[in-house]
Design brief:
Elements: H1 7-24, H2 30-45, H3 48-86, H4 88-97, H5 103-121, H6 123-140, H7 145-163, H8 169-178, H9 182-214, H10 240-263, H11 269-291, H12 295-314, H13 318-325, H14 330-335, H15 346-356, H16 362-376, H17 386-400, H18 404-422, H19 429-435, H20 439-464
Length: about 475
């Protein structure tokens, strides 16, 4: 059913444009997002009290949606700080310094390891594992923490997640919506994922190299310049034997987590929970070993430090996430049944309207699927709108007479690269927080390479349709 766009849709779209403009200009968007929530609530409820309450309720909703990510980041930070204070981290990463001899090797090495890890158990747990082990070695050879975050982010939340060839969550959603076999969509996505990944990562590395050479590079570190994995409050005595054994056992424990993910088919939140629980146990054991009779109190202290860091990182993100969540399921939950009849959410309605408003041919179809996928990715999940991309692809392919699988894969790639964690600040927080850099600076760094890569991928898709 076609849904007529209402004032809600146009106001939401206007605020999206305004927010993106502010991000490009490196301005803070918190106030604009709060105003956007208030205006949308006023239009929907026509009640001042409900609208003001909607601001707070939207914050609560966003926090509930993000709490898993907040916790895993906080716990990994807690564990990593006790590892650094005891010197275990130094011993653990020493063998990797032989491989990561230059910033370039560190960038591409971290990226490839992150991509493979993310294929098997998705990017968020991968960020925690790869970052905790490889970031110190990469920084030591001269790769900026922001550069490491770019590598983990682009290869994990970009290349690996947009193809999703092992877990197959993304291609199943789009294939089902397009009425196609999953294998057909996956096959069609291979050249698009390769082009998107190659162009984007190459450009990201080149821009980093150029700006560092010209002296225009910004490290993008959080306040105080401390990484989540490098903040140190002083060393703690631990025997060399204990350090060496710990440096061996800790990676083995995380490797066993990976094995368990395969054996028990754990993915997404379940995989993250396994990593988080392992990190908590490691934190407890290491703290008791290092602090002995003061261990009970120090465990709490490390956890408090980790959660302070986690909520400090997420503080400016929650208002922005709250606004964009209103574009999807959060609207009805927070503001009641106030959308037009037949609506599937503000963001999805805008995507359908865009598809209906343009003429149909291979070129326009490819352009429309890229833009539609990107728009549906603006809610920051990357997955909420890919079913819409599949539906729109099916509609265009029916009119064109070919290219259903290619158009479906293109919409999937666009939605996940934009919303899955490379451009939307709160979606790329795992990599930013692990590396101790601003998610907004990481988003700005990714913007140009991702947009150019998406343009190149769209052109390739035009020839494949």
């Amino acid at each position: 059913m076609d849904v007529e766009l209402s004032a809600l849709h146009w106001v939401y779209l206007a605020f999206i444009v305004f927010i993106l403009a502010l991000l490009i200009k490196r301005r803070d968007t918190t106030m604009i997002c709060v105003v956007g929530i208030l205006v949308l609530a006023l239009i929907a409820t026509e009640s001042a009290s409900d609208s003001v309450s909607g601001i707070f309720n939207s914050f609560i909703y966003a926090t509930k949606e993000l709490i898993g990510t907040i916790f895993i980041i906080s716990i990994i930070v807690s564990m990593s700080r006790v590892m650094i204070r005891t010197g275990i981290n130094e011993i653990m990463v020493r063998p990797l310094t032989g491989f990561m001899r230059t910033p370039a090797l560190a960038f591409w090495g971290i990226g490839m390891i992150m991509m493979v890890s993310s294929w098997f158990f998705w990017p968020s747990p991968g960020v925690a594992l790869v970052g905790a082990v490889l970031l110190p070695a990469a920084v030591r050879v001269g790769l900026p923490a922001l550069g490491a975050a770019m590598a983990m982010n682009l290869f994990g939340h970009g290349i690996a997640l947009s193809g999703d060839y092992i877990i197959q969550g993304a291609p199943k959603l789009t294939a089902d919506a397009a009425g196609l076999p999953v294998s057909e969509v996956m096959e069609a996505s291979v050249p698009l994922v390769i082009v998107m990944g190659a162009v984007t990562t190459a450009l990201a590395f080149w821009f980093m190299y150029r700006d560092r050479k010209n002296g225009t590079w910004r490290d993008g570190l959080v306040e105080g310049g401390q990484s989540a994995l490098s903040a140190d409050a002083g060393s703690v005595s631990l025997s060399l034997r204990a350090k060496r054994w710990s440096a061996i056992v800790i990676p083995i424990l995380f490797l066993l987590d990976v094995v368990a993910m395969f054996v028990y088919d754990l993915q997404g939140g379940d995989a993250t929970a396994l990593i988080g629980g392992t990190a908590v146990l490691i934190l407890i054991v290491l703290t008791l070993m290092a602090h002995r009779n003061k261990g009970l109190e120090e465990i709490t202290s490390y956890m408090v430090d980790g959660f302070q860091f986690g909520f400090k990182i997420f503080g400016p993100v929650i208002p922005i996430a709250a606004f964009f969540y209103l574009g999807d399921s959060a609207f009805t939950e927070l503001l009641g049944e106030n959308l037009p009849e037949g609506s599937h959410g503000i963001v999805n309605d805008l995507g359908v309207a865009l598809a209906d408003a343009v003429p149909v041919n291979g070129i326009v179809g490819s352009l429309t699927l890229s833009v539609t996928g990107a728009i549906t990715g603006l809610d920051g999940s990357g997955f909420s709108g890919i079913s819409l991309a599949g539906s729109v692809a099916n509609m265009f392919a029916t009119a064109i007479g070919s290219g259903a699988a290619t158009l479906t894969a293109l919409g999937q790639v666009a939605a996940i690269w934009v919303g899955g964690g490379t451009l939307i600040p709160w979606a790329l927080i795992p990599a930013a927080a692990i590396c101790g850099v601003s998610p907004f600076e990481l988003a700005r760094r990714n913007l140009k390479p991702v947009l150019i890569g998406l343009g190149a991928t769209t052109i390739v898709a035009m020839f494949l349709v």
